[in-house]
User: What shape does this take?
Amino acid sequence: MTTPSEAWQALAGWQPQTLSDLVAADPGTRLDALVRSVADIRFDFAKTHLDDRAVAILAGLAEAQDFTGRRKTLFSGGIANPTENRAAEHSAERGEGAPESVHIAQALHQRMRMMIDAIEAGAFGEIRHLLHIGIGGSALGPDLLVDALGRHSGRYDVAVVSNVDGAALAEAFAKFDPQYTLVAVASKTFTTTETLLNANSALQWLDEAGVADPLGRFVALTANPGKAMEWGIDETRILPFSETVGGRYSLWSSIGFPAALALGWDAFADLLEGAAEMDRHFRLTDGADNICLLAAFADQLYTNRLGCQTRAVFAYDERLRLLPAYLQQLEMESNGKSVTLDGAPLGRQSAAITWGGVGTDAQHAVFQLLHQGTHLTPVEFVVAREPDHLLDDAHHETLVANCIAQGAALMTGRASDDGARAYPGNRPSTTILLDQVSPRSLGALIAFYEHRVFANAVLLGINPFDQFGVELGKEMAKGLAEGTVEFDPATQALMQAALGE
Assistant: This one.
């Protein structure tokens, strides 16, 4: 069997063909090889530099890195996160995992559903607004779901506040009537400094507004119920989730409470089922037919063979405007590592830097660099067949035409004797086409990205489920604020200047 080192050497010797030549040579065969439909989503990798030889080399790398074994460990509840000696069981929240873990997740989902039923029945008084306080995975997932799917629900107003900057919380306070507001505090450990500071300010806001029993308006979403009770939230208003569910993978758990409340339980159940459909595809499909693994092949080709340091994601749908921000955490916190599973130096590039925006806005801003800049940047377009409005069809037709044309222009380019007007072309893109932006399709899409991250981690031989790099800055910020750590003169001078000391 090929070793990882031999596979990487083979990839280094692989030479890319131009995209136009690849597509023109045998378009039917290429589409059959690089286009997949899963959960009513079309994934199109035809405009990438993947060819039969590259796919074969990367499939050999996957085998050498024991992709099948690590995937089995992930879904069986084994130790997928060795540095913290934990399983990684976000898929169990969707019904795909170790039977005991699936049973526990379903029981906790039922507890959340009963809480939502109680809110709708008036157990908390009349509730019109939900203030969701969290940070990182405790905020990005719920924010994406509510923004993408909740625009026409008409159920509850939801504000997700993550920034410790008081201006963010003040903006939410200005929109909501405290007499009709429920506060959800989301923190896996219930020790996150920024989240608890915001929660204390929200408690003060309710108290100063004369809300009777302001603590009674709080719900905790956490894997550490004891800490939530210490803070003052009654056990009956705590929605736990498993310690084996990582923060950036947690929107499927009680962290998704804002979405379940704002969208309704049926929509949340559809979200879970869409993700489960992608889980089943990822778990049961081998080789390049596995769309998550195929996507990882393209990622490694660009990052570790063609030297691309970034990957751009553009949502050609206003409902998905928060997707690039969500993927930034998912991809860079998961795979932004420099050592392998056994602690050895990685010796190659890990995660690309994820960035992006919304089409067509981005075309008039950053696409200049993508078409004519000196950086080679793989681009990913996400678009839906069905629009979210009843306006003139020209709006959606123009949006879709721009999305598809950008991919074609990046690939073909245009020659010109005037260098300023020449487009080199041969620039890669992928397109993800959803039938519609629905709970089911969004669940499948997010699960696709989760498994793509895992597949990349396996190819690299790293752990995507720890995030120790987040901790150092947090520790130093606490020491700086409390004055308990001696810092260098430049840092001390800057702190004094910033706070006017």
The mean pLDDT is 96. Residues 99-120 form the longest helix (22 residues). The CA atoms of residues 337 and 350 lie 6 Å apart. The first strand starts at residue 35 and ends at 38.
